[in-house]
Structure formats: structure tokens, C-alpha cells
Amino acid sequence: MSHLVSVWRAAQLVGVARGVLQQQVREGALMLSDGMVSTDDLMGLYPGVVLEESGLLERVAQIRDEAFGKRVRERMLPSQEVLAQRLFSQSQELADVRKHLQRYHGLVLELQRRIREFGAQDPDDAAWLEMERQVTQGLAKALATESVDFLEVLDDMLKVMTSHVTVRPSGHEFMVEGHTNLLQSGLHAGLKLNYGCGNGSCGMCKVRVISGDVVKTQHFDYPLSETEKAQGYTLMCCHTAASSDLTLEMLEASGPQDIPEQLILTQVRAVSTLAPDTRLLHLQTPRTHRLRFLAGQSVQLGWTLPGQADVHATYPVASCPCDDRNLLFFIARDGSDAFARHLFAGDIKSGAGVSVLGPTGEFVLADGHRPLVFAACDGGFAPIKSLIEHALSLDAAPSLTLFWLATHSDGHFSSNQCRAWSEALDQFEYELVSHADANLGAWQIAQAMRADLFDIDCDFYLCGPGDFVKTLHDELRAAGVAAAQIFSQSL
């Protein structure tokens, strides 16, 4: 018998981006029933899917650990308490199903007995005999062993291993895995959540549990009132999902205007050489004061050399908001930039304190499920990288394509990152372009896009020098792309 699952769960089961299934729904290849997907239709569309190939257990780990190059995230089983509670919930559901089946079985047997009694009273009436035959055959068919719906079994297993969280009123969904708390899981899924300290002191991540259960993962000092407790309020940073399905009520940021300015004193974790003229600056925030920002935004960095004036410079954040404590920046050699001069001179070393003020900028990912096309020139790859990682966290785009122009020999300083994305993700493609003139390079990228027969119904994100952005913007508009689908930032 067919089993209905949400589009979000269906994408998880077969190991594709949610946007891919939504695109198939729009094209008529996949039908929805009250917003749900039939596992029969899903198996018809993906007949070769098996657990090892579905991607849910290995694919996501590969993306996060290899493609993003971040420290290995905890992907263990939930805690014993959470696992026991989810198993108990599944057992209750199974017991209820068995109870109903026993009642229906008894009802059918009683019906069969009564039919025989009426038939015995009138042996010449063939209708009673036919009715008894139909009931007996129907019962035998109901009790017969049928082939197992593989996706239904996998769905039941995932309900124990992971928890499905739905956010109201936005309707956003995310998955809670391992020992991660609700806040971490929501951020990893690309949600624009409201939070502050991340350790249970400020109360900014307070949400209301509408349905399902949560369990505390760490101590918190924020005092919830008795009224708030009675209404189901809890702190996302100190709780995880205890039930297989959880519904939370919360407000999310709608855009840059909802992100407050923050001033944080960070510590230099590392300074790495990516190319002769490019350095990777890795800053780490305190555990109790993380930077809340949107992918594509910038911050002002400040550093003080004893006995000298402060130096400040504004750079786009090159990392994903899902890892709000580890901030990455690509710093280019620039004699007119005092901060860059000190960094390349070796004055700003590991362990040094660097202030972060921000975030600023409106070059952020728009809501939608269209394919995404990114174009960067040289250091414009920094905010583009953040946007790509955020898009991967959201898992809503059917495809992602990157065109990266380098105007000097080491301009593709992070090409290995692009290669890792391409190897780990079926829906990601990239093309590296080299040209000394940014304007002509932009025209070359536009021709490459046309050669690839790109669909103009995409969202385009452009970042680089002003000439590069203007030329590419004009070429896209001339090709018929709507102005509302082009987002750009000049550096």
C-alpha cells in the first residue's frame, strides 16, 4: 500500500535536493496529494534507489566533511534518552495499529459467522453463499503477506534516527541528527533564526513547542516564567528533539534589516597562504558571543598594533552562517589596505585579537526554488562561496552553477573547493575562466552561459569589480533575464 510523505522527507529518502523534486512537480513528473508525495510515485521516478545509494546516510556526511572542509561534525546516534523516547513513541504507534487490526479482524470474523447463520436459515439463497465467499477471500487477502514498501520502512527507520522539525508560520523544515541541539540543526539547514549567546543565558532563541517533545541537552540560566513554561516555550540552544516529529512556533529573519549590528572581539585561529597574493584569515568568536549574519554579507575587521593607531577594513565573510563561530575571509595583497599590509607582513598572527563589527550588505540569497547561477571575479568569490554553502544548506535549488573569472595567475585560489563541491554534489557544476580584462572576461562568461543553453528562469548572483558586474548584468538583461532575478555586488 502506498505511503504518503512530505516533499522534504521524500527528498531525504531518495537522496536528491528538495528543489529537484519541486521542479519535477512543476513539470508534472511527480504528483502531489494535499502537499504529500506517494512512495509508489517516488519509487516509479527513482526505481533504483536503495539504502546505500539514497545518500541520506553517506551523502550528507560527504558534503559537509569533504566539500565544506570543516571539522567533522558529530554524526552519532542520538543520546540514549532521546533514542529510547523515539523508540517508545514508535512502539506506541505500532501497538495502536495492532489494536485496530485486531478489532477489525474480530469484526470481520463476527460478520462471517452471522452470514453463515443467515445462509443456514435459507440454503437456497445463493446471495448469502456469495457474500460469505467474498468475506472469506477478502479476509485471506488482508492477512496475506505483501511485499514491503521499502521507502515506508526507511521512513520509519529515519524517524528513530533523526527528527523532522516543522517551523510555523513559515513552514520551513529541518532535520535534527545525532546530539545536535535545535539551534545548531536549524542553522545547519540554512534557517535565519533569532539567537544570541548560544548557551542559554540570553533567551533570544526562545520558541514555543506546538507539538512533539523536546529534551534538555545542557544547563541554562535564562529564567522561563511559569506562564511561558505552561505555554510550551523552550530554548533552542539547550534542547533537542525527543520525538520523531516536532512543530515549533518562532519568528525568523526576513532579510538583512532583521539582523542587528554586533561588535565581537574574536581571536585569530589561523592565517593560511592560498596563493602568493591571497591569504585565508580564520577568526573564531567566543562560545558565548557568535556572529549572527546572512550569507553574502560583510563585516568590518579591526586590529590594534601596540603603540599605533587602529587599522580597519571591510571584507565579505567567506564562510556559511551555519558555522557562526568560525569566520573565514579571503584577504588579497593590497598596498592601499593597511589591514592587508599587516596581515601579509606577518604582524597579525595566530592568537591575536581582531574585532568584528557588522554585518552589513544586502547581497543575500533570495527566497525561491529556481536554479542558481553564480558569477565571481577574483576576490568576489568570497561572498559567492558563502552564498553557495548557504544554498547547499537550504537544499532547495534544483541546480547550482558557478562561473569564476581570474584576472591574474593565482586568481583561482580556491579551485580545489569548487572541485570538491562538484565531486560531492550531482547538482553543482563550475567553470573557471581566465582573462586579464574583467570587462572582456565578463563578456566571455556570458558567452559560456549561452553556449551551455542556460534557462533564463534562474536567479543570477554576480560579484566582482564594477566593470565585471555591469557588463555581465547588461548581457543577462539583453538575453531576456528579468531584472528581479539578477543580484549583484561590486567590490
Key features of this structure:
single chain; 491 residues; alpha/beta; 6-stranded antiparallel beta sheet; 5-stranded mixed beta sheet; 20 strands
- Calculate the terminal CA-CA distance, rounded to whole Å: 57 Å
Strand count = 20
Task: Strand order, main sheet: write it out.
Answer: 13-12-15-10-11-14
What percent of the residues sit in helical stretches (DSSP H or I)? 25-40%
- The pLDDT mean sits at 84
Please state the structural category.
Answer: alpha/beta
Q: How much strand content do the residues show? A: 15-25%
The number of helical segments is 14
The general outline is elongated
Low-confidence stretches: 51-75
Largest sheet: 6 strands, antiparallel
Radius of gyration: 28 Å
Explain this structure to me?
The radius of gyration is 28 Å and the shape is elongated. Helix 5 runs antiparallel to helix 7. The protein is built from 14 helices and 20 strands. It is of the alpha/beta class and 491 residues long. It has helices at residues 7-14, 18-26, 39-45, 59-67, 80-121, 126-143, 150-161, 182-188, 226-230, 338-345, 381-394, 415-424, 438-451, 466-478, and strands spanning 4-6, 36-38, 163-168, 173-176, 206-211, 214-216, 233-235, 239-241, 245-249, 262-275, 278-284, 298-304, 310-316, 326-332, 353-360, 372-377, 400-406, 428-434, 459-464, 486-490. Mean pLDDT is 84; it is low at 51-75. Strands 13-12-15-10-11-14 form a 6-stranded antiparallel β-sheet, covered by helices on one side. A 5-stranded mixed β-sheet has the order 4-3-9-5-7.
